[in-house]
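The methods section describes the discrete structure representation at length, but only in general terms. What matters is that the chain and its backbone geometry are given together, residue for residue. Nothing conveys this as quickly as seeing an actual entry. For illustration, here is how one protein appears when written out as sequence plus structure tokens:
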Amino acid sequence: MLTREGIVRLLRDADVDVVAQAENADELMRHVQLARPDAAIVDIRMPPTFTDEGLVAAQQIRREHPAVGVLVLSQYVEPSYALRLLEEHPERIGYLLKERVFDVAVLVDALRRILEGESVVDPTIVMRLVGRHRRDDPLGALTEREREVLALIAEGLSNKAIATRLGISDQTVKFHASSIQGKLGAANRTDAVRRAVRRGLVTL
């Protein structure tokens, strides 16, 4: 409850319209059905069992209300859950660690990207998946720097922001991004992140 109220306060301070709050998955589904929000923020662990009710609800929302984006929050790094979501619904879906969403800029940016049809994956999970590769997997062809760039792309940073973070030029970032897309057979940056996560499925 405290986490939910904290997120609601952050969103309202950022001028985001919060149309409803839910204490469990059934209540969440009722609110989505009635309010048809642009997006729903869902805790992966909800009453009554606090296991994967939120994940199941997220999948149901994307299946029954494809216009509603979903941002799933988790306290722990659980790559398998992120993979389940992205495999079934690769667009308008996000998976972030709770600790990250208390940075309002990260939270609002994630929601914006989801509304634009993108997938948002916590960079910690991307790095965990990218680090588990087989020799014959395309992820194995990525250099250490390319993995760093890929993780920052997943975090939603622009080329300029990535360049500043890594201490390299914008042009170098563009080169790495292009190389990543080529090695993964991706059409764009978002597709590169999605493919990286999907590739991780075979290594879990």
The CA atoms of residues 133 and 139 lie 6 Å apart.
